[in-house]
Design a protein that fits this description.
six-stranded mixed beta sheet
């Protein structure tokens, strides 16, 4: 037999590392309180849609950083409604369903919640007052191009509710740039936020808001997008993924591709997938079966008991067959004597006797005698099959060749029986002869095949392969025809329905001329109707084959057996024919070549498919602990680069916008002077490309920006790209740094200014919004 040509792929592969699916981590302690509060020190509030960063500007960093969430809880015993803010909402799992945020997108929509969150912030800062007012200046962040209604409501909240002495606003990404810069520098700020991403040019330390561009994509959209991708990838995933799960998946495993097209083209290759595919295990409770495993002796004893039980059942069945046979013999002897008495009985006596014994009439009696006689003959033939001796027809059936006129009446009856026995004997002899001839023909065929193989193995193998190809083609055509029956619009299905309709019309009242002619012959039967020629042509019976697919299935089984027989010969004698060349192997699922399989299950064969191929019971597969564990696993591969790539190719997520690189190229080449030589405006900007915001923590962000900018900048351009020291909290540190500058002091809006000029009044500065006319 020819050996296998290949080894099973991945058989030597090591198990993949499994990462646990992370949910929100509850804080171990409640939010701390700041102990060095002083009046008159500016309070910096970086109120982002993702988190709050708060603190007095006399500290090194924000004293409190907590999520921008709030929950309300009704204590029915105390008849009080409790408000929980920030990270404290995660301390009690019962609050998860009531977690809310004051933001809708980038804007505040619930100002009651915002007031509660500011109360919480000031309380943890230790704010105290002897005049019922907030005695600290406020430096606060606001969205780029903040709407008038947002600033108006915030003015009202700070000046009227808290009686703040003065307030100023700025943009978080510009504050972060200020924290990481010295002097009035030029640059390009890429600020990636929770709700959107902005590209802001900076000249002489001042943000150019008129040339600022926005991409409606941020961290929140990224976690939503990866959740949708995983829902499409695993539509029947048994665990529900919440926003914290998908956010952690995005933060922990996604990265920006340095060259997206090149990475995407070979991401599904086995060697790349081996290192890039991430397995994440969702929580699952696998119940261990503690049932004691039986020893080999116990299994052998159990098998012996089953065999003994089967033997007893066989003996009981044999005994029942013997009892039935004895009963049939007695009945046959009884009814034979009754049949012999018919000539001596009148018709009424025969009828009464038949009715007494449970027969309807004489025909019913004869049918029963024929059936019981046939059963006895079969039993005798089966019992004496091995003891059969040679029979001489002339001595065994002597009356067959004698004419009827030379025989008495009882001899004529006996002659008929002997003729029947002789005909059965001759039929058996013909069957034996035919079987012997077939065996001789088969032996002669095998001898010819052996001589052919010995003489010219290549020619024999070629001929057999051609026969195999023809049989496989026939098998596939039959399968295709059977499949076409399922499509009601296919030609085969329509022809099948037409044949059924024609047969129905013939039975239920067809209006065709042939049918009307058949109806006129009312005395004709199915056996003597001269107009019924169905069956005269063998092709007429094909209509039943067209109506039912049963014959096609039988034909397919016969073809499959012929294929198996040919393949067995080729495997035995043809050294170039291997198991991988068989028809069954070609129908086997090749997981290593399936992109979809590798996309869903990674660079390892799905254990369910492997167990099904081994013929393991489906119920055992469904309850196998390893299967249950695998069903709760997520494979992250292409998603790792696809989701972050939206920052550079928004069309992937259906956004009709330009990406970071395209926007930056347009700004540098068209909106500014486009001069990349010494002294040029664009030349000074590209020397400080600054990346900040939460998404700046994605790996390879700086490298990707360098690669994309290099592709459209002139050769030798002085490109420099850097990332914020701490993309999350550098905005607050920029506010702290700016609070001690003269520009900050001149940018405050006092309560008197607010009361005199109204809420639309704003003082412009280099790190905030401008008043558009």
């Amino acid at each position: 037999m020819a050996p296998s040509k290949i080894k099973s792929e991945g058989s030597d592969s090591q198990p993949q590392e499994v990462h646990l699916l992370r949910d929100i981590t509850p804080p171990t302690d409640s939010e701390p309180f700041y102990g060095n509060y002083e009046q008159g020190i500016p309070i910096a509030l970086d109120i982002g849609t993702s988190s709050f960063k708060i603190g007095l500007t006399n500290s090194d960093g924000p004293s409190n950083v907590f999520d921008s969430v709030i929950a309300r809880y009704r204590d029915r015993k105390a008849l009080k409604t409790l408000t929980i803010v920030g990270n404290d909402v995660y301390l009690d799992s019962s609050l998860k369903s009531s977690i809310k945020t004051p933001f809708d997108g980038a804007l505040i929509t619930n100002w009651d919640y915002m007031e509660l969150m500011l109360d919480y912030s000031f309380e943890h800062l230790g704010v105290s007052s002897d005049n019922g007012r907030l005695n600290n200046p406020i430096i606060m962040t606001e969205p780029v191009a903040c709407p008038f209604s947002q600033r108006k409501n915030m003015y009202e909240l700070l000046f009227e509710a808290y009686q703040a002495p003065k307030v100023t606003f700025g943009i978080d990404s510009l504050f972060s740039y200020h924290a990481n810069s010295t002097g009035k520098s030029n640059g390009l700020v890429i600020g990636t936020g929770h709700e959107s991403t902005h590209v802001i040019p900076v000249l002489n330390g001042k943000g150019i808001l008129s040339q600022t561009r926005r991409i409606d994509w941020g961290g929140d959209q990224s976690q939503q997008f990866i959740a949708k991708l995983l829902a499409l990838k695993y539509p029947y995933f048994p665990s529900k993924l919440n926003s914290h799960h998908t956010t952690n998946l995005f933060k922990d495993f996604c990265y920006i591709s340095e060259n997206y097209q090149d990475d995407l083209s070979n991401y599904m290759s086995m060697d790349v997938l081996e290192s890039k595919d991430i397995v994440v295990q969702a929580p699952v409770d696998i119940t261990v079966n503690n049932e004691k495993k039986k020893t080999e002796e116990e299994l052998a004893l159990q098998t012996q008991k089953r065999k003994e039980q089967g033997r007893r059942l066989q003996e009981q069945a044999q005994q029942k067959r013997i009892e039935k046979l004895i009963q049939k013999r007695e009945e046959f002897a009884y009814y034979s004597k009754f049949r012999d008495d018919f000539p001596n009985l009148s018709q009424d006596e025969i009828t009464k006797r038949l009715a007494k014994d449970g027969f309807d009439d004489l025909d019913d009696f004869n049918k029963y005698m024929t059936s019981i006689e046939k059963s006895l003959k079969n039993a005798d033939s089966n019992g004496n099959e091995e003891e059969e001796v040679q029979i001489d027809p002339s001595s065994t059936w002597p009356l067959v060749d004698i004419p009827d006129d030379q025989l008495a009446e009882d001899q004529i009856k006996e002659k008929r029986k002997q003729r029947l026995h002789k005909a059965n004997y001759e039929a058996r002899e013909r069957t034996k002869e035919l079987k012997r001839e077939q065996e001789e023909a088969q032996a002669q065929y095998e001898k010819e095949q052996e001589d052919w193989r010995t003489r010219d193995l290549d020619d024999w193998s070629t001929s057999k392969r051609l026969q195999l190809a023809e049989l496989i083609s026939k098998y596939k055509e039959t399968a295709k025809l059977m499949e076409s029956f399922k499509d009601r619009k296919s030609v085969a299905a329509q022809q099948r329905m037409k044949n059924i309709a024609d047969l129905a019309n013939d039975e239920n009242g067809s209006t065709s001329a042939a049918t009307r002619k058949r109806r006129r012959n009312v005395n004709s039967t199915i056996d003597n109707d001269p107009n019924d020629t169905f069956g005269a042509d063998d092709d007429d019976w094909g209509v039943y084959r067209d109506i039912s697919s049963v014959s096609l299935k039988e034909e397919q089984v016969v073809t499959n057996n012929q294929i198996l027989s040919l393949e067995e010969e080729l495997l035995k004698y043809d050294p170039e024919f291997h198991h991988e060349d068989t028809f069954a192997a070609s129908q086997t699922f090749d997981w290593a070549s399936s992109t979809l399989h590798k996309f869903i299950h990674g660079p390892r064969q799905n254990i369910t498919i492997a167990m099904q191929a081994e013929g393991i019971d489906p119920e055992e597969i469904a309850n196998h602990p390893e299967i249950i564990k695998k069903n709760h696993q997520i494979h992250l591969n292409v998603e790792r680069i696809r989701v972050p790539e939206i920052l550079f190719r928004p069309h992937i997520a259906g956004l009709d916008q330009a990406g970071i690189s395209e926007i930056s190229e347009d700004l540098l080449r068209r909106q500014f002077d486009g001069n990349f030589s010494n002294g040029g405006q664009s030349n000074s900007i590209i020397q400080d490309i600054f990346i900040t915001g939460g998404l700046a923590n994605l790996p390879n962000f700086t490298t990707r920006v360098v690669n994309d900018f290099t592709s459209f900048l002139p050769a030798g351009a002085p490109l420099k790209v850097r990332k914020a020291t701490n993309p999350i909290t550098d905005a607050w540190r920029g506010m702290k740094k700016w609070s001690s500058s003269e520009e900050c002091e001149s940018s405050y809006i006092s309560k008197a200014d607010y009361e005199e000029y109204g809420p639309d009044y704003i003082k412009e500065h280099g790190l905030g919004n401008v008043a558009f006319q």
